[in-house]
Amino acid sequence: MKQALVDDTEDVSLDFGxxxxxxxxxxxxxxxxxTFFHLFFRVSAIITYLFCDWxxxxxxxxxxxxxxxxxFDFWSVKNVTGRLLVGLRWWNQIDEDxxxxxxxxxxxxxxxxxxxxxxxxIFWLGLIICPVIWTVFFFSTLFSLKLKWLALVIAGISLQxxxxxGYIHCKLGGQKxxxxxxxxxxxxxxxxxxxxxxxxxxxxxxQAVDNQIRKx
Length: 216
Description:
Layout: H1 2-8, H2 17-25, H3 32-55, H4 59-85, E1 88-94, E2 100-106, H5 117-143, H6 150-173, H7 178-215
Antiparallel strand pairs: 1-2
Helix pairs in contact: 3-4, 3-5, 4-6, 5-6
């Protein structure tokens, strides 16, 4: 009887980690502020473009307001929301030879720290739909001969398509993870120090040899 009780109360290991990660993954919004601003600037630019005549008769005021909203959207999506919502990042850097290099990265993080499905869906839908809307504005402006708005519409297409292209490139073929890029940065930054140390040691060695020759 005692043996049966021992067998019945045998410890069983349960894996709750995967269930917790799955629950976090399916959570609605983990970065509400980033999610809000991912859509706020681009949607505000579209709404202002459609209804700016209702609020102001000044073309310059409308033009500047929409352009500022597009610029804020480009910066926030490129530098903040892409990193927080989907773990992607892209930028341009200039090397020591003056050559321009485009860097596309996909951050490799544990699932428990990754973005949720809802955030990723909001990110990609906003990133894809808004450039399509600005493309529709381009053709409507062209066919209605409202050429004064053409430059603004082209700016909207350019800024939002640039982010779309950058993040698609990150998603499909990012070069290295952010952690690797950070390690490479510190290694590169340490190269001049090591080179300076080596040159100093060579000079000290040559001076010691010269002193020995003079003594002889």
